[in-house]
Amino acid sequence: MDSRTATPAQARVDLAAIRHNVALLKDRASGAELMGAVKADAYGHGLVPASRAALEGGASRLGTAFVREALALREGGVTAPVLAWLLTPGEPLDEALRADVELSAASEELLGEIAAAARRTGVTARVHLEADTGMSRGGAPLAAWPALVARAVALQAEGAVEVTGLWSHFACSDIPGHSSIEAQIDAFETALKLAEQAGAGGSHVIRHLANSAAILTLPRTHYDLVRPGIAMYGLSPIPEAGDFGLTPAMTLTARIALAKRVPEDSGVSYGHLYITDRETTLGLVPLGYADGILRHATGRAEVLAGGRRRLVAGRVCMDQFMIDVGDDPLAAGDEVILFGPGGQGEPTAQEWADTLGTITHEIVTRIGARVPRVYEG
Predict the structure, then answer these.
(1) Checking DSSP bridges between strand 82-84 and strand 274-275, what pairing results, if any?
(2) pTM over cut 0.90
(3) 73-109 pLDDT tens trace
(4) CB 151, CB 108: distance < 8 Å
(5) E strands within 72-222?
(6) What structural domains does the chain harbor?
(7) What backbone phi and psi angles, to 5 degrees, belong to 240?
(8) Which residues are catalytic?
């Protein structure tokens, strides 16, 4: 390995896997358009490369949480339609409109800010109105929905905005049979009818509700557009129901920084939570909680090293953790796989999530910026 290009660790991202996953989801989308959710640096996979792969796989639109993420797509040369859906006061709305970014609004106040930006720039703002159908997070509650729609229609008549979307978000679509699912569908249908009656409907207005889990299990919620997130990166939104044919796109690896023999009864790492029960070989893996390796992986999570699974031995530190390989050969520079698709016997991100009591979203999005993304496929 060239020492000038060698890195202690890397997240290898298989762009072919993203293309495969998007194509699979598109096939399940009942003819609806597909908006790839690429917020949070494309769930840790790299904003622009993952977005391009999603578009190549069949996505026609992209979605981000923040305006700055949408602007980064434009700076990266991505020209596909982009929606930014989490806006706070003082966002660079003028810049967003000039960059042809669509915006979501859930309050009359935000609509007013968007309209003001439209007047300043002379660009009609394309707006998706978000209804809170039961998640109690983003969106206008149904009691406030008629007033929001009426304000949007008035601004539309003025030419400041154009309502191009009506949408909401599921709270429990990853829990098949949950009572809230039907309640949210009913509430969304009510919101759509109210909007249409007020003049904010029409065939050009995109209706969207389905996230990854709903794409795969609730075809009647596909409407005009679906919004896959975690499934686009090959991770199941409903793990207990299987992998749905998805292929994980990220493989997290590191190279052993130091291998050494230590005697029996050696305390390992902070707090000596792990003590060797024999003379053994320890390996130092140069990844830690500053890179997104959860501290409570200590003594619980496994990695693949030397062809075998190894537990994290001792406390995960800021930049490193240890593994115990016994009498197996191990040398500095040897590769360790923390998680990947599982084809080499390595743990998967799902296994890490299950072991640590979390979800795969957290496992992949926590991988920090000092771990370079290396693109394959």
Answers:
(1) unpaired
(2) yes
(3) 999 999 999 999 999 999 999 999 999 999 999 999 9
(4) yes
(5) 82-84, 101-105, 125-132, 140-141, 161-167, 206-210
(6) 15-233 (3.20.20.10), 250-376 (2.40.37.10)
(7) -70, -15
(8) 39, 270
